[in-house]
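To: structure subgroup
Subject: Chain for Friday's discussion

All,

I'm putting the inputs and outputs inline so they're searchable in the archive.
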Amino acid sequence: MNPIVLFDGDCHFCHSSVQFIIKRDSQELFYFASQQSEAGQELLKQYGVPEDIDSLVLIENGKAYIKSTAALRICRHLCSGWNFLYFFRCIPNPIRDAVYDFAAKNRYRWFSKKDSCPIPPDSIRTRFLEVNSI
């Protein structure tokens, strides 16, 4: 199964992060679902992730990763040198997650909140999951 990125569909920064991943995912490895969608809710429940998680979630190899660990594991698959960021996994998790939590706590203030999750273009729509596709 391909890795799945669950993102906050109400967050401009999260939406931009998904676009960032798509542009640098040359192997078209990642699939995506908004945490607010039925598919996202189903996956959060299936992998025991709290519904109110304030983090990007990566489901990879049968396990859910959150916060900085999820972000770094995503980076290791990206092209254009972004995979180098995976090196930062050597920083202790509490320190990495403190930085992640600071950004997550302020993301709506810095980037605002969306009223709805935009429909992806046809060229990548198949990479966005629906309930019947998981």
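Points worth raising on Friday:
The chain has one domain: 4-128.
Residues 33 and 129 are 5 Å apart (CA to CA).

D.
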